[in-house]
Amino acid sequence: MTALLPQASKAILLIDDDELIAGSLRQVLASSGCEVDVALEPCTARALMASRAYDVVMVDPYLTGGVHQQSGELLEAISTLQPGASVVVLTGYGSPDIVRAEADGRVSKILAKPQSIPFLSEYLFSASQIAVIEPSIKGRPE
């Protein structure tokens, strides 16, 4: 049988240049007991990812400041620096890089913008839960 158990410390990194979305999500998730960091640009995201492990990384790979053409590089940096994290892409744009990242397992889920703060916070909170397999007792049905 599989059960979802909350981790002692749910660490979530939000990478989005929309300060309103990132700030609102941070408040809601923090009130649910998550540790939440926010990066508004790629260089801050890389520094945060190099300094600690995250359970979930939510990223808009199309940040302002010329990063549009470098979305694949940002996703690759997340894969390299946070190999154990569940990666959720939140974007209003599709790209072959993002589709490939989902197909090869570097991205757990692609969500289209816009999404409501309550939906995103519930999704990210549930993504930060871990599934554990409970041992079955021989002779007892599962």
SSE topology sketch:
Elements: E1 2-5, E2 10-15, H1 19-31, E3 34-39, H2 42-51, E4 56-59, H3 71-81, E5 86-91, H4 96-103, E6 109-112, H5 117-127, E7 130-133
Parallel strand pairs: 2-3, 2-4, 4-5, 5-6
Antiparallel strand pairs: 1-7
Helix pairs in contact: 1-5, 2-3
Do you know the CATH topology?
Answer: Rossmann fold
CATH class: Alpha Beta
User: Hey, roughly how much beta strand do the residues contain?
Assistant: 15-25%
- Share of helical residues: 25-40%
Largest β-sheet summary: 5 strands, parallel
Radius of gyration: 16 Å
Q: What is the number of beta strands?
A: 7
Keywords:
single chain, about 140 residues, alpha/beta, Rossmann fold, two-stranded antiparallel sheet, 5 helices, about 25% strand, globular, disordered N terminus, disordered C terminus
Summarize the structure.
The protein is of the alpha/beta class. The protein has helices at residues 19-31, 42-51, 71-81, 96-103, 117-127, and strands spanning 2-5, 10-15, 34-39, 56-59, 86-91, 109-112, 130-133.
